[in-house]
Amino acid sequence: MKDAGARRWWVAAMAVAALLGWLEPRLDIYLADVLARVGINVVLAVSLNLINGHAGQFSLGHAGFMGVGAYAAAAITVLAGPHVLPTSCPDWLHQGWFLLALAGGGAAAALAGLLVGAPSLRLKGDYLAIVTLGFGQIIGVIVRNMEPLGGALGLSGIPPRTNLFWVLAAAATTVYGVTTLVNSTHGRGFIATHDDEVAAEAMGLDTTRYKIVAFVTGAFFAGVAGGLWGHFKLTISPKEFDFNRSIEIVVMVIVGGMGRTAGVMAAATVLTLLPEGLRLVAGLSPSLKWVGESRPLLYALMLIALMLLRPQGLFAWSRARPRPA
Predict the structure, then answer these.
(1) Are 254 and 246 in contact (CB under 8 A)?
(2) Which of 150, 152, 220, 255 could form a disulfide with 106 if both were Cys (CB 3.0 to 4.6 A apart)?
(3) CA–CA separation, 53 and 311 (whole Å)
(4) 259, 194 in Cβ contact below 8 A?
(5) Dihedrals φ, ψ of 162, to 5°?
C-alpha cells in the first residue's frame, strides 16, 4: 500500500467511523458492543504484528501494555478529570479530555515499552518472550497493590467515553500508522532484522534500535486500546490484562499470518465474532445447547485444526515488502 493510497484509505475509514458513530444510538446495543470489541482487538493485533510479525520479535506481554494504558487513561479521567473539568462543561470538552487521556495512556505504555525493551531487546527468541511474560506479571502485581487505582478489586466509575467513532478511528489510525512505518526506511530495517539479524548487523544496521522502535510503537497503540477498553467496560481489574489476554492477541497475529496487516485485521475480526457466532448457534434450538456449553473446547479445536492444515496463517497472502521511499 503506497503512502498516497494509505492516506486515501485512512480518510475513507475515518468517514466510515464518523458515520457509524452517528448511527450508534440507532444500532442494537449488542451489535454496537460487538463492533467496539472488534475494533479494539484490531488495534491490539495490528500493533503486536508490528513487533512479532514485521520486526521478528516474540512478545508475550502485550496485554501488560494494554493494562498500563487502561489504568493511565482511567486515572486521567477519573482522578484528574473532576479537578480540571466540572460536570457542567460542554460534552466536546469532555471528549477532548478523553482524547488527551487516550494519548496519555498510549504514552505511559510506550514509556513502559521503552523501559522493558531497551535492556531486553538484545535478547532473542524464547529469552525475549520470557522477559515480556515477566513484565506482564509484574504489571499485574503492581496494580493489585495500588489502592488509588482500586487495588485487586479493580477501578470502577470510569466515564463511558468510548464509542464506535473513537474505536474505529483508533483502528484506522493504527493500521495507517503501522503501514506507513513499515513502508518507510525504518520498515526496511524491520524487515532486514526479521529476515536475518546477523546479516543486518553485518551491513551496519543497528538492529537493537529498530527493535526498540517497533516495540515502543506497538506498546503505544496497545496503550491506546487499553484506554478505549477501560472507557468501554467502565470497570477494569488486573485479571483482564493477564497472560491469557496476551495469548489471545498472539493467536490473532498467528492466525492472520505473521507480518500481514490485512490478514491480522481479518483474523482479529473473525476470532472476535467466532465465540459470538457459537453463542447464537446454541440459542437456535435446545438440541444445540451443547454448543454454548462447549464453546471454549470448540474454539480450541478450531485453532488446532487451523495450525495443522494452514500453519502459515488462515489469511496469509504474499508478504508485503516496504517500497522504496
Answers:
(1) no
(2) 220
(3) 14
(4) yes
(5) -70, 130
Phi, psi of 236 (to 5 degrees): -130, 150
155 φ, ψ (degrees, to nearest 5): -105, 125
Cβ 73 vs Cβ 101: under 8 Å = yes
Residue 225: closest CA among 53, 69, 59, 16: 69
Q: Are the C-beta atoms of residues 208 and 25 closer than 8 Å to each other? A: no
Output the CA–CA distances (angstroms, integers) from residue 155 to 72, 225, 263, in the order listed: 11, 17, 34
CA 162 to CA 146: how far, in whole Å?
25
CA angle 37, 46, 21 (to 5 degrees): 40
C-alpha cell at 179: 503501514
Residues ≥6 apart with Cβ < 8 Å to 279:
292, 295
What are φ and ψ of residue 137, in 5° steps?
-70, -35
Reading the chain (325 residues) residue by residue, the pLDDT tens digits are: 456 677 888 999 999 999 999 999 998 999 999 999 999 999 999 999 999 988 888 888 899 999 999 999 999 999 887 777 777 777 778 888 999 999 999 999 999 999 888 887 777 667 778 888 888 888 888 888 888 888 888 899 899 999 999 999 999 999 999 999 998 877 788 888 787 777 877 888 888 888 888 999 999 999 999 999 999 999 999 999 988 899 899 989 988 888 888 899 999 998 898 888 877 777 777 777 766 667 677 777 877 887 787 777 777 654 444 444 4
Give the whole-angstrom CA distance, residue 282 versus residue 30: 17
Rounded to whole angstroms, the Cα distance separating 272 from 267 reads 8
Distance of alpha carbon 3 from alpha carbon 6, whole angstroms: 5
pTM of the model as a whole:
0.89
